Amino acid sequence: MRVSLLRRLATLATTLGLTSLGLLGAATTPAQAAISDCPAGYFCAWKTDNGTGAMFKTNTNKATLGTWDNTFQSVVNRTSKYACLHDDPNYSRTGGVTSWAPDPAGTEWGGSQRTVSSVSFVATERECWFPAYPEWYSSTTPQAAGFGDLNADRKADVLVRDKAGRLWFLRGDGTGQLVGSGGWNAMNALVRHGDFSGDGREDVIAREASTGKLWLYPGAGTGSLGARKLMGNGGWNAMSRIVAYGDLSGDGRSDVLAVEKATGKLWLYPGTGSGTLGARRLIGNGGWNAMNALVGAGDMNGDGRADLIVREASTGKLWLYPGRAGALGSRVLIGSGGWNVMDTFLGLGDVGSDGRADLVTITKSSYVGESCRGVGCQLVYQGRGNGTLGSRVETANDWFGLNGFF
Ligand SMILES: [Ca+2]
Ligand SMILES: [Ca+2]
Ligand SMILES: [Ca+2]
Ligand SMILES: [Ca+2]
């Protein structure tokens, strides 16, 4: 596995919260008359600290600022994007960068340090410092796949949703490809694990928050997704968790598991292989709401059947439920505690080079590691092939300022 550079650690994980410009006041002060001169849809700046005098305005990126270079002392951002104020020309991210949130009404303005030399506008705050998507590197050795592989190159890949509702496909070489141009924040569950439509290509399943409908987005085999098809006609908001599991029913087709919020029951929805789900079957009598993460991790214990990894909320323990034919076997403890520092678990199959399924996690702010701490560290736990996990490896530190990993 290629380990990405752990760059600009410590400072940058907290930068997003710390470098926003300090508020000087609402636009009700005597300066209001000048600040309010900024037209709707524009970013404006003044050389004075109260928005008086000559006004700079733009609604497009400015690589240099001419006579306005290093003069911004008060600013307002009436655009619908984040304004990144770069200390260096040409939108450099290596010098200082401060962000200013979108404020179309122009009710908030703030002070700047007379250091700004270029201005850029971006959809999400993290893009002031980073690419829109994080770094993902998977093994360069092709593996027997089946899931965690949307573009069918037998290397594990990741989908990332950003705060603007865009969906990015990370193929595993550090690059990202836009595969959803917007609207994905309308989904309150997003899962994938192999093929549901029967064409051999991995698909994505999403639950629409407003309707409780379940949608199948057929994978094109390239990382892109085709036109969606209705998979569940409502009612799915009754489920606290939805898991794309792999094959549990034993017919070789990918299935879905779901925990019923009201009862804590675990249901198996067998995939039909034609983009629909068959009649559900009860596979867990109750208690499943005590688990606050469920991952269809693939075959972790080496018996050829897909298994389920879950996290117990109250203890932070990690359990492995081995898959049997149409049911789950007795659980085995595989993590004795501390797993509540994880924000996200990803079951992507083998991300190393040994042919064994691994577990990938993204951390919360409470995580403290060896070379990364806080929110957005990406860790890989190598599966040993007997159900247990090896020690964590910190593989990236820029998985923050986003809205989900799948
Ligand atoms: Ca792939
Ligand atoms: Ca498919
Ligand atoms: Ca099945
Ligand atoms: Ca297994």
Kindly summarize this structure in a few lines.
Pfam families: FG-GAP_3, Inhibitor_I36. InterPro entries: FG-GAP, Integrin_alpha_N. With about 400 residues, the protein is mainly beta.
Counted by DSSP, the helix tally is: 2
Number of strands: 29
* General shape: elongated
Spatial strand sequence of the major β-sheet: 1-7-4-2-3
Strand content: 25-35%
User: Structural class of the helix and strand makeup?
Assistant: mainly beta
Report the radius of gyration as a whole number of Å: 24 Å
Helix content: under 10%
- What small molecules does this complex bind? calcium ion
Keywords: Signal
Pfam families: FG-GAP_3, Inhibitor_I36
Signal peptide: 1-33
Protein name: FG-GAP-like repeat-containing protein
How do the helices and strands line up, and which of them pair or pack?
Layout lengths: L10 H8 L4 E4 L5 H4 L7 E4 L8 E4 L15 E4 L4 E5 L10 E4 L7 E4 L6 E5 L35 E4 L5 E4 L5 E5 L6 E5 L12 E5 L5 E4 L11 E4 L6 E8 L8 E6 L5 E4 L11 E4 L6 E8 L8 E6 L4 E5 L1 E2 L2 E2 L3 E4 L6 E5 L12 E5 L14 E6 L5 E8 L10
The structure holds calcium ion (4 copies).
Keywords: Signal
Protein name: FG-GAP-like repeat-containing protein
Pfam family, one: Inhibitor_I36
